[in-house]
Amino acid sequence: MPHVSLKNTITFAISVRDRHASADWYRDMLGFELAHHIDEAGWSEMRTNVDGVTLGLGEQAEPSPGNCVPVYEVGDIATARGALEAAGVAFDGPTETIEGMVSTATFYDPDRNAMMLAQDLTSG
Q1: Do 15 and 67 touch, CB atoms closer than 8 A?
Q2: pTM listed for this prediction
Q3: Is the pLDDT confidence value at 124 over 70?
């Protein structure tokens, strides 16, 4: 039995220099649709043609190609993080929260591949 119960969504997060230009590129080249730009967080999301799969564009001055980070949605990030930590999973710093938007926590698999848990805080 798994330690965490995941929802039926996954976001693949990548770093880009200009999320607005990248959003246009993904729209024009792959047919993705803009879900939203969150300018104060330097973040944009694109709906892919696969149900439940989103592409997240994180703006960085010096992006690191090949650094795709899967982001798994959970209903309660504190409970999910606690269960993984109790099982020996390493996390990178504290859970980060943008009030009214999202809470995220980065963790690693045994080979140090980064992944994230995310809890949507937009629906009250």
Answers
A1: yes
A2: 0.76
A3: no
